[in-house]
């Protein structure tokens, strides 16, 4: 990440008209393709010696001296985002979430032909994490540093920046880092238990040691590795990681010690107290609460039932707040996207979607519904909301932009990513200097020479705005932990087995059927429908999708539409000075049989859309 900016409050606002956007994407999404691309992204983030099976061909070997100055082999692992630093905390969380995705939906990944690739992605991370843990009470948590790295714009293969390694130990503890790494090792041991028992056992040995290290020598890792503070500060502290690690240790070992640890420390470490509206690499409470709720519903709580019930209450608070059915709800954009912060908001969307998905399946197994302060929610409704978030990412949004690079036709082309923005070393091996990279490549107003397939970028702002510019790192920088939780959701959605016709949210009123407006000679068809609804500040907002079709045998030019009884923003048309709406600036005409889509959002019945003028070519 370029600079890490923690949580800040966003005042609830009314919708703003954001101008012209591309034509809306239509039809069902190809979740299998998205899953495949989402896994492929991790190969672009690899550090170290690349294997012969490497599929991202524009990448080369990099970071081959990592750890040498510290006397340890730290070659390998993942670059976290668009830079060339290896940050241990988000890398471990990435591995944990990839592993959880496989644990829950590995069979679905197998039917998609992607399980082996997903397991390779996990193993690339755990191979490195084991290297980073050379002694029971020593863990290397960073290679390189953000300050020197961000001063330069170089592809990984050309790095000239510092590759110093930073560690925690019993004199310089980091319970959050050690705890998350223990969770990653434990979760990954489950993934490999059947396919590679020896490797699984090795991972579990590291997990045991790391949990003991984290619990015995307590402290925040960024107090020991201070260079991480500007980029991955542990704002939540280490209590959540201790519980998170214990939950994964129990899941991996069935050892009652870890189950009782969760029961004994639930109150003291905040697992039963914190009501969360976010889940990510820093704040793990919602994740551990979800896992403990599963233990409880599965009859594994033992004597910890009352305490685990409090965990479950907090897990369900998270689910209800995401759905907009709690007394303190997650903010959403006008287009319906969960919104937490401007800086890389999609990390929270993918992680929340994953928790909603797995919890829906846990409830189904327990034959239960979710009970929120605003009503009861069934498991299919949880899945439907998670699906709406994934579909938004893949292009069902007011800008009709896919925020997964390489998926669909309209996706970010100027990604804030050193490797993808600089010509491949295999195409042009000429050295790219530290500052020369900024002058030649960073400042280019052109598409990246290398396609960063599958990357989930930071995403739009609170009003669904997005600027595809390389220097807009808040929105165009990808991250491994954006993708990791999404893998499980995509596998689940591809497998189906649920009613895809469920609404995004239980509607407060039935969508109004809109009759097409008569048009001159019936040559232009207009149809519109309600596609989603949500409640904010006591008001119900509706998103309407409108399709305008040229039913004639000739090309239509200078099409102007009249939209009356409109009380909100429009996306996908150009507003004229006389108040009418014309075709987008990049569409000069509408060929025979072709259509354009546009959307609008307001709090009333459908607006009246009609044709005011046009010419025939």
From TrEMBL:
<dbReference type="Pfam" id="PF09478">
    <property type="entry name" value="CBM49"/>
</dbReference>
<feature type="domain" description="Carbohydrate binding">
    <location>
        <begin position="524"/>
        <end position="603"/>
    </location>
</feature>
<keyword id="KW-0119">Carbohydrate metabolism</keyword>
<dbReference type="InterPro" id="IPR019028">
    <property type="entry name" value="CBM_49"/>
</dbReference>
<keyword id="KW-0732">Signal</keyword>
<keyword id="KW-0964">Secreted</keyword>
<keyword id="KW-0136">Cellulose degradation</keyword>
<dbReference type="GO" id="GO:0005576">
    <property type="term" value="C:extracellular region"/>
</dbReference>
<dbReference type="InterPro" id="IPR012341">
    <property type="entry name" value="6hp_glycosidase-like_sf"/>
</dbReference>
<dbReference type="GO" id="GO:0030245">
    <property type="term" value="P:cellulose catabolic process"/>
</dbReference>
<feature type="active site">
    <location>
        <position position="468"/>
    </location>
</feature>
<keyword id="KW-0378">Hydrolase</keyword>
<keyword id="KW-0624">Polysaccharide degradation</keyword>
<dbReference type="GO" id="GO:0008810">
    <property type="term" value="F:cellulase activity"/>
</dbReference>
<feature type="active site">
    <location>
        <position position="477"/>
    </location>
</feature>
<dbReference type="GO" id="GO:0030246">
    <property type="term" value="F:carbohydrate binding"/>
</dbReference>
<dbReference type="InterPro" id="IPR033126">
    <property type="entry name" value="Glyco_hydro_9_Asp/Glu_AS"/>
</dbReference>
<feature type="signal peptide">
    <location>
        <begin position="1"/>
        <end position="26"/>
    </location>
</feature>
<protein>
    <recommendedName>
        <fullName>Endoglucanase</fullName>
        <ecNumber>3.2.1.4</ecNumber>
    </recommendedName>
</protein>
<dbReference type="Pfam" id="PF00759">
    <property type="entry name" value="Glyco_hydro_9"/>
</dbReference>
<dbReference type="InterPro" id="IPR018221">
    <property type="entry name" value="Glyco_hydro_9_His_AS"/>
</dbReference>
<keyword id="KW-0326">Glycosidase</keyword>
<feature type="active site">
    <location>
        <position position="416"/>
    </location>
</feature>
<comment type="similarity">
    <text>Belongs to the glycosyl hydrolase 9 (cellulase E) family.</text>
</comment>
<dbReference type="InterPro" id="IPR008928">
    <property type="entry name" value="6-hairpin_glycosidase_sf"/>
</dbReference>
<dbReference type="InterPro" id="IPR001701">
    <property type="entry name" value="Glyco_hydro_9"/>
</dbReference>
<keyword id="KW-0325">Glycoprotein</keyword>
């Amino acid at each position: 990440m370029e600079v890490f900016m923690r949580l800040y409050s966003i005042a609830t606002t009314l919708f703003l008209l954001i101008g012209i956007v591309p034509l809306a994407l239509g039809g069902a999404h190809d979740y299998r393709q998205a899953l495949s691309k989402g896994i492929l992204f991790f190969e672009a983030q690899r550090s170290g010696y690349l294997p012969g099976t490497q599929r991202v061909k524009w990448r080369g070997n990099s970071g081959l001296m990592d750890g040498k100055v510290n006397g340890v082999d730290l070659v390998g692992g993942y670059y976290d985002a668009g830079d060339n630093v290896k940050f241990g905390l988000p890398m471990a969380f990435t591995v944990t979430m990839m592993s959880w995705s496989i644990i829950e939906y590995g069979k679905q990944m197998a039917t998609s032909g992607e399980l082996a690739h997903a397991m390779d992605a996990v193993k690339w991370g755990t191979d490195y994490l084991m290297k980073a843990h050379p002694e029971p009470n020593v863990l290397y948590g960073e290679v390189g540093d953000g300050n020197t790295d961000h001063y330069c714009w170089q592809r990984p293969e050309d790095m000239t920046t510092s590759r110093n390694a930073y560690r925690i130990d019993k004199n310089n503890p980091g319970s959050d880092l050690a705890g998350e790494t223990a969770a990653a090792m434990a979760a990954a041991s489950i993934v490999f238990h059947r396919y590679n028992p020896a490797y699984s056992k090795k991972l579990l040995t590291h997990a045991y040691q790391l949990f003991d290290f984290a619990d015995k020598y307590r402290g925040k890792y960024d107090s020991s590795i201070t260079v991480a503070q500007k980029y991955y500060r542990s704002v939540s502290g280490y209590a959540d990681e201790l519980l998170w690690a214990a939950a994964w240790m129990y899941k991996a070992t069935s050892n009652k010690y870890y189950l009782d640890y969760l029961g004994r420390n639930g109150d003291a470490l905040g697992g039963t107290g914190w009501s969360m509206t976010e889940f990510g690499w820093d704040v793990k409470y919602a994740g551990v609460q979800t896992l403990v709720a599963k233990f409880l519903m599965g009859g594994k709580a033992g004597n910890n039932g009352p305490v685990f019930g409090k965990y479950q209450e907090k897990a369900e608070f998270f689910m209800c707040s995401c759905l907009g059915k709690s007394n303190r709800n997650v903010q959403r954009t006008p287009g319906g996207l969960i919104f937490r912060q401007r800086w890389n908001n999609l990390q929270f969307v993918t992680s929340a979607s994953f928790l909603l998905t797995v919890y829906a399946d846990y409830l189904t197994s327990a034959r239960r519904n979710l009970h929120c302060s605003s009503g009861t929610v069934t498991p299919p409704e949880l899945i439907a909301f998670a699906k709406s978030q994934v579909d938004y990412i893949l292009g069902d949004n007011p800008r009709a932009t896919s925020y997964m690079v390489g998926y669909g036709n309209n996706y970010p082309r100027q990604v804030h990513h050193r490797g993808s923005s600089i010509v491949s070393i295999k195409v042009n091996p000429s050295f790219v200097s530290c500052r020369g990279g900024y002058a030649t490549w960073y400042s280019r107003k052109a598409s990246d020479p290398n396609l960063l397939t599958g990357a989930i970028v930071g995403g739009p702002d609170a009003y669904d705005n997005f600027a595809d510019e390389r220097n807009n790192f808040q929105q165009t920088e990808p991250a491994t932990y954006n993708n990791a939780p999404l893998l499980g959701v995509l596998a689940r959605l591809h497998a189906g087995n649920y009613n895809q016709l469920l609404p995004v949210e239980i509607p407060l009123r039935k969508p109004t059927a809109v009759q097409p407006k008569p048009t001159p000679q019936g040559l232009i068809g207009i149809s519109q429908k309600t596609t989603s609804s949500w409640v904010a500040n006591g008001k119900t907002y509706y998103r309407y999708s409108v399709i305008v079709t040229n039913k004639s045998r000739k090309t239509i030019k200078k099409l102007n539409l009249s939209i009356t009884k409109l009380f909100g923003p429009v996306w996908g048309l150009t507003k004229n000075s006389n108040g009418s709406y014309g075709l987008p600036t990049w569409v000069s005409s509408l060929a025979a049989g072709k259509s354009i889509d546009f959307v609008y959002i307001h709090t009333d019945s459908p607006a009246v859309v009609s044709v005011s003028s046009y010419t025939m070519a």
